[in-house]
Amino acid sequence: MASHSKILFSVAITASLAAIATALRSAARRRGGVGSPLPREGGCVYLDYAATCPIYPEVADAMVPFLYRHWGNPSSGHAYGAPCRDAVARARASVARLVNCNAAEVAFCGCGSEADNWAIRASLRGARSHVVVSAIEHPAILACVAALERSGEITATVVGVDARGLCDPAEVAAAVKIGETALVSVMLANNEVGSVQDVRGISRAVKAVDDGVLVHTDAAQAVGKISVDVRALGVDYLTLVGHKFGAPKGVAALVRRSTAPLPPLFHGGGQERGLRAGTEAVPSLVALGAAADIWLDEGAAIAAHSAAMRDRLRKNIEDALGADRCTVNGPLDADRDRALPNVLSLGVEGALASAILADVGDRVAASASAACHADDAGVSSVLVAVGVPTAAAVGTLRLSVGRHTTPAEVDAAAAVLVGAIRRGDARAPAALAKRLTADAADALAGRESAVAASVAKHERDGDVTDDPTVAAAEAAVRKAFAAIRKLERGPTPDAADAAVDAVDAAVVAARLATKAG
Ligand SMILES: Cc1ncc(COP(=O)(O)O)c(C=O)c1O
Known about the structure:
Blueprint: H1 2-32, E1 45-46, H2 57-63, H3 65-68, H4 81-99, E2 106-109, H5 112-123, E3 130-134, H6 139-150, E4 155-159, H7 169-174, E5 181-185, H8 199-209, E6 214-218, H9 230-233, E7 237-241, E8 252-256, H10 282-321, E9 326-329, E10 343-348, H11 353-360, E11 364-365, E12 367-368, H12 381-385, H13 390-393, E13 396-400, H14 407-427, H15 429-445, H16 449-461, H17 468-489, H18 493-516
Parallel strand pairs: 1-11, 3-4, 3-5, 5-6, 6-7
Antiparallel strand pairs: 2-8, 7-8, 9-10, 10-13, 12-13
Helix pairs in contact: 2-10, 4-10, 5-6, 10-14, 11-14, 15-17, 15-18, 16-17, 17-18
The structure holds pyridoxal-5'-phosphate (PLP).
Residues 111-113, 116, 138, 140, 187, 191, 218, 220-221, 241, 252 line the site of pyridoxal-5'-phosphate (PLP).
């Protein structure tokens, strides 16, 4: 009897533990799902997913056992090694599924920069020491190429992009030197303007010219944002980076086709089948596998959510500032299918991105595409490559969203950014005066043209109107242009505020007069 009740008791305990585990798992899923908010640093809205993506809550949960319990060395033959070895193998399988390759083709490494450098060096063979890259590659490619050029190890050709930030596959293929080119490296998605290249077309075109050329794509910004299939792309090497899609910083992979050479960058204990020495960063690799699984489970929802948040952000800002003041760089308008779902490169006419970001830094986290400061005319080489004029480049913000961005965050961030842009306007009165003059002229030339015409007539003839509404509108219009002229003469924030108010008042008065007329 006693043992019977013990069995019943233990069955009940097991059942309730299972229920608790299920509840915890679904709570974790709820906590981490698409569109669920994450805690904010000091209340600051995070719009900088392209710089680094938050660690997804489920990814952090997956790491925990490998911090507290399974901390052994995967190479150890004893009990502490096995769970770590198994976990690394599972992570490798997940990453392979993520990009559609064999597990043996995944070489784990420490960061995207390492993977990019590794691919370039691995590709150099005998007489093949020429490299072709696009003008908008990440510094992990461009700086490595420049260093190898300086040391005389390679020569390089840089291929430009069009206004959408896209390379022409034919132009890339034309840069190939038969028998000399070792590698063509063109990123799958750009980190500033979000252009998604036709890497499949590039690979085909290049190999049609010389099938000895190896092709690498830096997919750091693509993996976890769009579907990536290394076979379909037809590349020999592909870089993917954990911290861009929900894993922590300091873990990445170079995926390579089994036929592509991959000599080790450094030598040591024979880890990664002798390709990369160094005891494996087990918790980080577990995280990379978990982030891959999340994309495999809910990638379509992440992409759709990101695109909705990006479009909402854009609309909010354009509605407040006027669409004609905003320019979206990259392919979003011209070629939407070639745009990453989560990046918005937004140029605001007359604004200074560095000043806006300094103003909002504790409320909105974002980046300037332009490396610009008030006293530094340097602008992003990516924006230069896509043909954005310097004046527009210094006013360009890179806003990037992701799995955990919420509509409320987008709305709040847009309001904060617009406020900062308006404050910036007041600090840049000369530009503001120009714009206000144009705004006022536009408004008065449209529906209110009757008032504009009567102002002109009465100014010319020196007489006055006897219609009090028209007289009031004329006075308001004169006052507005006087305020703008004052602003041009003495550019102060007060003068800017007065001019904005005067133009607003003039437009309202002119509308009234037009209706009355
Ligand atoms: C396109 C691209 N490639 C490479 C990297 C470098 O990755 P990591 O910072 O892990 O070295 C980044 C990171 O910003 C990136 O955006």
